[in-house]
């Protein structure tokens, strides 16, 4: 909070050097809970099951998130129509409900609401710039009416489409963050991360980075390349990262979608809370100050980020009331062999087994073509 009791804005926080903890991914978490259809990944649950969306927002907030993104992924009539399952609800209704839910929960704490737009099927079909921009504008109109705090353009595979999104979002006068779901090799057209960052900042983005598609350490590497590109071009922007909560070391340029296990058998790849602490530290060390997650991130992963960066942030999240740092609550256990696990050394150095004797440690990702 600012001294006058109002919430500090996103740029006010980042300009002051504060660490901003983001939230985790909603579509995959809510698919697993039974509220989202895999493949469609559309957010009609904001209208159909507001209690489910509200609860997930609340858990991310309790875990330490400083930002709640509106549950508006793929929320345009184009995408809803393709899916063919959302018949009696419009994109506008979903966008409005999602804004109300995020605001309601954000106001239970010090969190900001970010209105989020994402890639459109119509860009994929090589439709016109004006048609793609009209889709973003329609979502933006709701975000403005609902007074979101800032805007995020996320999950773009092509920097060009992200530039269009940034240009539209900027017309609101609100701060804009932009994240691409790209690899260290760059976007789908192999525009390098450094060049992508330069183009997004030149388009007007205040915060740039990466989300989804690849694991946290790969994301740190890509954002570091973006940072170097910006430095070489004498440009400045805040850096942001919201990666997967899954290990994807063997993934190619196409990201986790190319894994044979996507999307229904990814459990063996889940990242532990201890690995999340390593990620938070690495991200911080390369200068990323907006640190959150995407698909595969559950609230306890966000709590791990907040716990790792508690010395820098000067506080622990509410959910840490039930969690001793580095497993310390186990040190109170009455069985000595469990007590022995109540320390950082044990958890930091553990190599968790998968429990699957026939499970390969790596998969062979599917190859993708540019048009895919
Ligand atoms: Zn994701």
Keywords:
16 helices; 372 residues; alpha/beta; binds zinc ion; TIM Barrel
Protein model, in words:
It is a single chain. The chain is of the alpha/beta class and 372 residues long. The protein has a single domain (2-325), classed as Homocysteine-binding-like domain (TIM Barrel). The protein has 16 helices and eight strands. Strands 1-8-7-6-5-4-3-2 form an eight-stranded parallel beta sheet. Strand 5 (176-180), helix 10 (193-203) and strand 6 form a beta-alpha-beta unit. Helix 10 (193-203) crosses helix 11 (216-232). It is globular. The chain binds zinc ion. Zinc ion is lined by residues 25, 212, 294-295.
């Amino acid at each position: 909070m600012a001294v006058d009791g109002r919430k500090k804005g996103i740029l006010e926080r980042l300009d002051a050097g504060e660490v901003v903890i983001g939230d985790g991914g909603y579509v995959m978490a809510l698919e697993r809970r039974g509220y989202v259809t895999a493949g469609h990944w559309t957010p009609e649950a904001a209208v159909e099951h507001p209690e489910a969306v509200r609860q997930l927002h609340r858990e991310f907030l309790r875990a330490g998130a400083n930002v709640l993104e509106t549950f508006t992924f793929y929320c345009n009539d184009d995408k809803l129509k393709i899916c063919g399952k959302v018949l009696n609800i419009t994109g506008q209704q979903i966008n409005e409900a999602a804004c109300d839910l995020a605001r309601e929960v954000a106001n239970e704490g010090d969190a900001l609401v970010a209105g989020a737009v994402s890639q459109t099927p119509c860009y994929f079909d090589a439709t016109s710039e004006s048609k793609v921009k009209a889709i973003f504008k329609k979502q933006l109109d709701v975000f403005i009416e609902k007074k979101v705090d800032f805007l995020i353009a996320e999950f773009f595979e092509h920097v060009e489409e992200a530039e269009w999104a940034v240009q539209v979002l900027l017309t609101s006068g609100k701060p804009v963050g932009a994240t691409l779901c790209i690899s260290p090799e760059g976007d789908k057209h192999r525009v390098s991360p450094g060049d992508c960052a330069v183009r997004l900042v030149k388009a007007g983005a205040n915060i740039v980075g990466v989300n989804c598609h690849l694991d946290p350490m790969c994301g740190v590497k890509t954002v570091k390349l973006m940072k170097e590109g910006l430095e070489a071009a004498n440009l400045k922007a805040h850096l942001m990262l919201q990666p997967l909560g899954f290990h994807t070391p063997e993934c190619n340029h196409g990201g986790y979608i190319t894994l044979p296990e996507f999307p229904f058998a990814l459990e063996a790849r889940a990242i532990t809370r201890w690995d999340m602490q390593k990620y938070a530290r690495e991200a911080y060390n390369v200068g990323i100050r907006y640190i959150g997650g995407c698909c595969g991130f559950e609230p306890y992963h966000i709590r791990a980020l907040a716990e790792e960066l508690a010395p820098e942030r000067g506080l622990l999240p509410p959910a840490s009331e039930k969690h001793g740092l580095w497993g310390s609550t186990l040190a109170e256990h009455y069985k000595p062999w469990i007590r022995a696990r109540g320390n950082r050394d044990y958890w930091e150095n553990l190599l968790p087994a998968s429990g699957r004797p026939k499970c390969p440690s790596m998969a062979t990702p599917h190859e993708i073509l540019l048009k895919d």
